[in-house]
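## Example record

The block below lists the input lines for one assembly entry, exactly as stored, with component labels intact.
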Amino acid sequence: MAQALTHSDPHIGDRPRPAKNYLNATTGIWSWMTTVDHKRIGVMYLVAVSSAFFVGGMFALLVRLTLLTPSHKLFGKVLIDADTYNRVFTLHGAIMVFLFIIPSVPGSLANFVLPLMLGAKDVAFPRLNLASFYLWCTGAILAVTSMIVGAVDTGWTFYTPYSTTTQSSVGLMTMAVFILGFSSIFTGLNFIATVHKLRAPGMGWFDMPLFVWGTYATAIIQVLATPVLGITMVLLALERVFNIGIFDPKIGGDPVLFQHFFWFYSHPAVYIMIVPGMAIISEIIPTFSRKTIFGYKAIAYSSVALALLGFLVWGHHMFVAGQSELATVVFSALTFLVAIPSGVKLFNWLATMYKGNISLETPMLYGISFILLFAIGGLTGIFLGALSTDIHLTDTYFVVAHFHYVMMGGTVIAFIGGVHYWWPKITGRMYSEKWGRIGCSLVFIGFNMTFLTQFFLGSKGMPRRYYNYLEQYQPLHAFSTFGSWVLGMGLFITAAYLLASLRKPMDAPDNPWGGTTMEWLTSSPPIEHNFEEQPVLEHEPYDYRPRVKKHA
Amino acid sequence: MSEHTQNPKAEAAVYLKTLIALLVLTGITVGASYIHFGSGAANVVVALTIATIKATLVALFFMHLLHDKPVNGIIAVAGFIFLGLFLMFTLLDFDTRENPLPRNLPGVVTPPPPAATTPAPAPEHH
Amino acid sequence: MEWFRSIMLPPQGSAFAGEVDTLYMFLFWLSAVLFLGIGGAAIYFAWRYRYTPGRVTPHITHNTTLEIVWSVLPLLLCGVIFFWGLNDWMKYAVAPGESMEIQITAKKWLWTFEYPDGSRTANEIHVPINKPVKFIMTSEDVLHDFFVPDMRVKHDIVPGRYTQVWFTPTVLGKHHVTCAEYCGKGHSDMTATLVVDNEPDFKKWLETGGDDWKNYPPEKWGEMQREQKGCATCHSIDGTKGQGPTWKGIYGTMVEMNDGKSYLVDDAYLQESMLQPNAKIVKGFEAIMPSFQGLLHPQDIRGLIAYIKTLK
Amino acid sequence: MSTSTVDLQHDPHGHGDDGHGHDDPHHQHHFTTMEQQFDTSKIGMWLFLATEVLLFGGLFVGFGMMQARFPEQFKEAHEHLQRPLGALNTVVLLVSSWTMVMGVLSARTNQRKKLVIYLIITILCACIFLGVKYFEYSHKFEEGLLPGHYYTHHGDKIATVNGANGYATFFSFYFMMTGLHGIHILVGIALLAWIAVRGNRGEFNSSYYTPVDLVGLYWHLVDLIWIYLFPLYYLIS
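Predicted structure tokens for the full assembly:
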């Protein structure tokens, strides 16, 4: 008889911990390398994307360190020259985008939690799930080889004709991105099939948790946008090898055509990054407010609206790139449409917190940080959407600050919040709440120190991707670099105490936060095929009304 | 299993008729290419509409979209819709792009005249 | 208010800059208000409704009118901002007919400008005040971007075709010009100076290349020309081999050419190397140096030669 | 790309069936019924086909833009393609689509022998198609109509302006699109052979024919892409 859920106080619904769980059901490296269990693949993805985040983060710290002073000197010696700097910021961009932020939430957290939330035994195509992980590894190996052989110096956007004429190993990196694209497609494909066909009995489309809605919307973008990235990378590689005149004007091509190809994927890609972040926040806010989500349908529909509208606006990256004036005006108008669903989500989260019973554990701290930082990120997007201000602000540090507020202030903060929220479920252990709050505060302060200053650098007219800058920008750059150290420290502390928690014995209850979604029904960590017997949905999602506890 | 065959004979006949229709349409489209419909663009439109008809026939009958769960049809159509979006906006940019020209074509750089049209018109502005 | 604007935005060099700044400040204050509203609400709720064990929260699932309100209101607000931005942008997009046309040729890390009367300058432009000036731009190699922060104007320069940008300067003095589209190693060195003069100074500068060379010794002026005209990107002064031969210690020595002959490096040789660089190519280098004919005024050439003499 | 389609087909032996008294050995443990498993495979396959449509779509958009950039050169380059061969290939692929769907029908009606025959005919048609393609490619190689800087054909009306050779761009796209299509045909042949072998062993019956159906969908898509390639390349005059 399914244990009915009650709410109010954490540590409810405790049962004796089953001896066997997905971690120790089978042991040995080979059992992990050939697993088709979505939970193990989720954990492997978590380790993989976190290491990519570490490498990308190191490059970021190096970029900030180089920009500390206009002379780039550290202890009297020039740190890196202009050429190396170009390669470092390119690799920071490429690794963070392709290896970390796109596969992070869908690959690790969604892989682990989605089937549990649906009450399913596994994703629709388990083997394809493993194939997707190994494609990520292949792409990562190719990217690392490209780094060693001759690091790319074109920026993560690979704009032609620079990318078709530079000697750095653009070919290898484009193939790495091509393969990583397929890894992303297969994850998306898997989730769409799972959501359509593997929901628990009684779970209609509007009984699913909002995390599933967000992941579903992201999967739509992954499936429908990534193939065009694939063909763009192939065309770029073929142009470099066979001198085909598509993008390079020296042989009859048009660089603006490449920008269309690239941004047709890359703008939906930024929604692949933010929508899963919003999905996690839609889980954290109601759980820690212990209150029913406000506007379930509004949030669900706005996720799908973001996914679909995301395909109409890519031209706002090219307002001054030589695009036709009519196209520029049309893209600007459509860009404002995209701002509406994001606003709707923000207001609904606030309405959820209204009259809640809010406890500020670490996931909720990250949740509120997300609301604050994503609000700034979203609002500064309006500056870049308006045509006249965009002329001054595009390609400056204003854009750098904007997308870091949305990508790091949004997705990465939500990702870390999600990792904390599901840490007991994934590892069976609680992390140290004290250190969690310290880590979150450092990350929040460090992040704002680093990137709030860059808004002013950008509006003052400092272009992005600059090695040498004017003397007048030095104080802001120095402050931003100090901020990056605080941010780096916060992230290191977070990694440290999370890993430290692994040494403790498994002490996490089934439902530490009093969540009402199905993953909290099973044990922490879950048994290998998730549920003893198929859970049946008995109440609408996020229903925090008190119920009499059915005797077992 | 889903659409267990009521009557395989009837189904085979449908497939045969579809094949014949496709072959006939192929003949038509080849024939149509010899006739000149106004401008070159008109020919392209005719050829592509015939191709789309053939494609829908293949999709509905050969790929069983007709008696299949609607979600498969939506996915199939979605692929083409988003491709159409990509084509439409890129064409919007290419067709309405202004190409400002300097008052004299300096010898320093002679880029190919845009879209290989006739040499520089008078540099007046809209 | 003006103080606040001057912190965030560069000085205004044109009327268009004023309009852009007005919209920018409106958006800034709007965002500040909205952010304080949203952030304030989040923090206030977190404090006001802080956790007390056992408290039951009300079961409010949705409110359709509220959803409509906070969808339609932002949409209207966005509409206003869009049309405001479009209205200003139209001025940026359409150049007035009578504006002076300067042709820009951008190449890897150097700006060259050509005036209607054919005179050419590198990394420095003089324009008359209160007169619209239009730039028709192309690039010889990769994407570049002509960005004048003070005029709030920017446009990519695409190789293989022409792009255009215009403004009407209204403030005298020097304005910083910089490249804003990534173009490789020297991307951040690709800067130029836009000098806005009144009409007579501009005319005089056009003929003589200005007279501020008079208040510098020739070698100092030569050193400034080396920076300004972009010689530094290819020719080093410390002996290291760049895309072009180094200038260190070459004056008065015999230098061997690609074709085996060797010549004495004297004033005539240096002048010829500047104006017809492909006549003699030093051994081990390619003929990629552009001619500086019309770019270097007599005083510039004398200055450069004097400067090279000082490099032992 | 081929590995993915193979993965989509469920290995008939399925992995460990826990003791839920499954009626069919192919029933995977995380599905409740065989019908649910079949429908899920169909959704997965159609999603994969949508990505293929968009992958080829990128090339069609590129072709369209280059056509707008070099209208005369593209029109003249079209003449080098032999229209009868294109038409023959279209007929061959349409027939192969028909034999494929008849194969799926016979698999569904437990006619093992007919399934194998239809699959073999489909494979033969595919080979004919590749043969015609080989002949066309060799003709292009002889005349020097090759992509990018390998283009050495003479006697074109419009000369190359600043390195912009419209003909080379046309043939770049020709080889890219028909080449990618050809690769998909090769992958299709491998899949068809694999299905034919398993069909011959009698693994498919009315209650389990998913692999045949999915390979059929894949093959029809490859035909569908050729339906669009044919007019765009061979019929524009």
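The longest strand of chain A covers residues 73-74. Chain A touches chain D through 46 residues (CB under 8 Å).
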